[in-house]
Design brief:
alpha/beta, disordered N terminus
Length: 400
């Protein structure tokens, strides 16, 4: 199925910190699959319902499409397959606007005087553009820090929303540190979609905003006459979107619903060169990996979010890795079926294929509780427009 190469792992460092100060990471065997079926019996508190009502009141809001694709159902050996298409979300080509808009709304509601605030963030594209767009709509300033290597089209799109854009020599992490420093100025506030020790409130609000996506899926499945999903596949970078999935699905059910439906199995999908969540699940603690080069740039993350980890540890049923070639094939197949998806978004289909088909799939299907009558939902987090064709494979985007 996938090559069992090696991947370095280590204890998770606090953020922000200098990468040059980290000790060399030991090399351990790559483990491309992890399953913990007991996750389906774990429950948690539900996410606040306020975010969905807020989003529904925004100008231009409409639920993103949920496409049913019978060809994929036949391929995966299940009854129905749906793809949640985030290629058009509040005028942007990715789901990030959900988290940014809700967090900004809550921050401004708590501010004594928001008329002169400057919203500050770091980004490799989608999150920064979402923050900039919200700032423009609210008549506020935005200052967005981007690392070197971000595609000029992405930088231009952020500037086109009226934001001040500063390019930082170095990595995404370096850009985050510069943004955090800049947010210390009077009248500035940091809107970052990454948590570290001492900075959790805004990232938690961003995760709350992502809950709207899964509430929409519930309503759309019901409208299609489909049962609750048997499996939800989510692309994972630092794990914030997967955290939202866990909060949604694990807060609604215990072992079965009143209708006798089993709770959804939740599958995280990562690039084989950046599988920090899979490594953490295997180790039983937050674990960092030394990342490599991947076209799934938004998933090229070496450390799980400190906020996401407890939910992922207890609420994920399984984790799997995929190759760039798997994601590219999934992109092409989705495009042929009328769904625009970028490399990160298509990872969910690649992961479902890796889990449900091929050598050893009988055991993996059993671990996930998947059979011929199952319904599968694939979360496609971005459209093809979110990744310019000439973008360098090693350039990172905002973590998912």
């Amino acid at each position: 199925m996938m090559e069992h190469e090696t991947s370095p792992v280590a204890e998770s460092p606090a953020f922000p910190s200098s990468s040059s100060a980290r000790s060399p990471l030991p090399r351990l065997p790559r483990l491309p699959w992890f399953a913990r079926p007991a996750a389906r019996s774990w429950t948690c508190a539900p996410p606040p319902a306020d975010a969905h009502a807020f989003h529904a009141a925004l100008p231009g809001y409409t639920p993103t499409a949920l496409h049913e694709l019978p060809a994929l159902a036949a391929e995966l050996g299940v009854a129905r397959v749906f793809v949640k298409d985030e290629s058009e979300r509040l005028g942007l080509p990715a789901f990030k606007a959900l988290g940014a808009s809700w967090a900004i709304h809550r921050v401004l509601a708590a501010a004594s005087d928001d008329r002169r605030l400057c919203l500050v963030t770091a980004t490799d594209g989608n999150h920064g553009r979402a923050v900039a767009k919200m700032a423009r709509q609210l008549g506020l300033r935005a200052h967005v820090f981007v690392p070197e290597g971000v595609h000029p089209a992405a930088v231009a799109a952020i500037g086109g929303e009226g934001a001040e854009v500063t390019t930082v020599a170095g990595s995404y992490d370096a850009a985050v540190r510069r943004a955090a420093d800049a947010a210390g100025a009077p009248g500035a506030v940091l809107i970052q979609d990454m948590a570290w020790d001492g900075y959790e409130e805004v990232p938690a609000l961003i995760v709350e905003g992502y809950a709207t996506l899964f509430s929409e899926v519930d309503a759309q499945l019901a409208a299609a006459g489909a049962p609750s999903p048997s499996l939800v596949a989510v692309p994972v970078g630092v794990g914030s979107l997967a955290q939202a999935a866990v909060a949604h699905y694990r807060s609604r059910r215990s072992v079965t619903t009143a209708a006798g439906e089993a709770p959804a199995a939740l599958l995280s999908v990562e690039p084989e060169v950046a599988a920090c969540v899979l490594a953490s699940l295997r180790a039983g603690r937050p674990t960092s990996v030394e990342t490599g080069v991947t076209t799934m740039a938004g998933l090229n993350c070496g450390t799980p979010s400190t906020l996401a980890w407890p939910a992922l540890r207890d609420g994920l049923d399984a984790a799997i890795t995929v190759r760039d070639a798997d994601s590219a094939a999934a992109m092409r197949d989705l495009a042929d079926l009328g769904v625009s998806s970028g490399p990160c978004g298509a990872a969910s289909l690649a992961g479902a294929r890796a889990a449900l088909t091929g050598e050893g799939s009988a055991a993996r299907r059993a671990a996930l509780g998947i059979g011929a009558a199952s319904t599968v939902v694939l979360i496609s987090t971005e459209g093809a427009a979110a990744t310019p064709p000439s973008q360098a494979p090693q350039a990172r985007k905002d973590p998912v």
